[in-house]
Amino acid sequence: MRRLCLVGFALCMAACQTRPGAEPASLIIHNARVYTVHAAQPTAQAVAARGDRIVLVGSSEAALDLRGPGTRVIDAHGATLVPGLQDAHGHFTDLGASLQMLQLRGTTSYEQIVDMVRARAATARAGEWILGRSWDQNDWAVKDWPSHQSLTDAAPNNPVYLTRVDGHAALVNKAALDAAGITRDTPDPQGGRLIRDAAGEPAGVLIDSAQDLVESKVPAVSDQQLEDQIVLADAEARQLGLTMVHDAGTTPRTVAAYKRLIDAGRLRTRLYVMLRGPLAMLEPEFKKGPTINYGGHRLSVRAIKIGADGALGSRGAALLEPYADEPTTSGLMTTTPEEIYAQTLAASRAGFQTCIHAIGDRANRVAMDVFERVQGEVPGARNLRMRNEHAQILDASDISRFAKLNVIASMQATHATSDMPWVSARIGVQRAQEGAYVWQRLIKSGVVLSNGSDFPVEEPNPMLGFYAAVTRQDPTGNPPGGWMPDERLSRDEMLKSFTWNGAYAAHAEKDLGSLEVGKLADMVLLDQDVMTVEPRQILSTRPLLTVIGGEVVFEAKQ
Question: What sign does the CA torsion over 528, 529, 535, 541 have?
């Protein structure tokens, strides 16, 4: 018996032994199909991490040589391992807030929304605001802007504020209009529009900056409520395989909440933050300078976000020519070109990257003009990697300017497939063919294209973006062959746009974006091989594990 015990002990020691002189790994994932997004070693079988850094990318045998008594060893059973996925344009706290609101995505009529509001009002306190988001009149049989009367009848004692799917329009009831003091005599604010009925009365639809008239009356969340929203968003991101999110426009107050939660170990998703607000709010932050890699690479605040125009779906995107389906308007510049220039100039002088929301071709022209002007005035501004957020409708003459100015195209694949049923109606077939969601034309001109979702405008699941990128189809497979299929991404381009390109857009490619020795150990184990499966199967692909900094932060239930 003693001899058997000694033999068993020796076998155990041999199984746990590491290579001579090598410290044991803390985490090993082996027997996987690894896509590294690293040109020098595009595939592997295993990845090993020690602490928060990768120490081996190679064979399963080599990885298992690094196991020790405390190593967590995960047999992937042939599942697919990719670098941690990045959403290069999302709204983190808005995602958490949306999970607490009425969910209006997919509603097929205004009447359905009214019924949902009526049900919520039945349990709400008098005077309590009823909030919701993600309605889209393009999904309704009747696509005209509605009147507030039905919402008013459904919730006469509660102000109602319902944000459109793109965040650039809102439906409100009479109580909300009254709370904001909006009457027929209220003028359209600069960069906004009040939809009015035939008698000139406010109909209850607010476009772009007109939303602020009512939204400013919605009670601000407390610090605790804000932290609750962040924690909700963090959990949602991790279970979707998102290891880093570029938070596209927030405030110093939210940044302070991020730091509190990071310090407490309650926020795991890495965040790259764009500050957003008037220049008077930004200037004190510029004086402080950028925050880089706070909390062990958990948080960087080194960018600003400027909204140049509205959205195409609500006809707020600023166009060079009038809308084909509403020739009386060419959209809205929600920020004046002068203010865009002033903020970009100040940010560049302070070492902050500027990210400009630009959807219509006129807004994109203004954004590129500002980038070019500031790069000519501020030494080193080109190296800040200025970003054009969305870049949806481009005049053909502006496509080549991205590479010339070292401007990143930060685009969202699902925007194209959500918008494709009505883009041609909005801007005409020719303009759509020349410059709508031209991913390949940008890539072939030498542009770095990062991908995201713009959640909660679109759903945060990156697999929806993967599918849209490689098919240019909706989830039902329409249109056959894809919409403007020449602009589809290859699988390699798709994966890189959600990993390395996102890291590059955040000045983080030395630490993130690919599976390489020395980089941070951010990885996602997927239950299907998104690089080879039939495209429709991408939609059903789910994370089995999400790893951030060598720590498993999400594990699917078996």
Answer: positive
Residue pair 416/472 in contact by the 8 Å Cβ criterion: yes
What pLDDT, in 10s, does the model give residues 417-448?
999 999 999 999 999 999 999 999 999 999 99
Which residue, among 80, 81, 24, has the nearest Cα to 51 in the 3D structure? Answer: 24
Kindly list the distances between the CA atom of residue 169 and the CA atoms of 137, 178, 196, 212, 259, in Å, as whole numbers in the listed order: 11, 18, 14, 10, 31
SS3 category, 474: coil
Long-range contacts of 177-182 (CB under 8 A, 24+ apart): 177/148, 177/202, 177/204, 177/214, 179/214, 179/217, 180/213, 180/214, 180/216, 180/217, 182/213, 182/214
Q: What per-residue confidence (pLDDT) applies to 349?
A: 98
- Of 251, 250, 272, 259, the closest CA to residue 227 belongs to 259
CA distance 534 to 526: 15
Q: How far apart are CA 263 and CA 518, in angstroms?
A: 25
d(Cα 344, Cα 376) in Å, to the nearest integer? 12
Phi, psi of 335 (to 5 degrees): -130, 135
Q: Give the residue from 393, 412, 420, 513 showing the smallest Cα distance to 465.
A: 412
Reported as a single tens digit per residue, the pLDDT across 163-178 is 998 888 999 999 999 9
Burial 157-167 (b: 16+ CB within 10 A, else e): ebbbbbbbbbb
Structure tokens at 256: 């302070």
**How far does Cα 474 stand from its chain's mean position?**
19
Write the CA distances from 83 to 86, 438, 495, 498, integer angstroms: 9, 26, 9, 9
260 sits in which H/E element: helix 252-263
Q: CA-CA distance, 236 to 93, in Å (whole number)?
A: 11
Tokens 């290891």 map to which residue?
A: 243
Residue type, 232: L
Contact between 464 and 414 (Cβ < 8 Å):
yes
| Domains within the chain, CATH numbers bracketed | 86-91+222-511 (3.20.20.140), 94-215 (3.10.310.70)
User: What's the start-to-end Cα distance of the chain, in Å?
Assistant: 38
User: Does the global pTM surpass 0.85?
Assistant: yes
Q: What is the largest CA-CA distance in the chain?
A: 98
Residue 4: per-residue pLDDT? 36
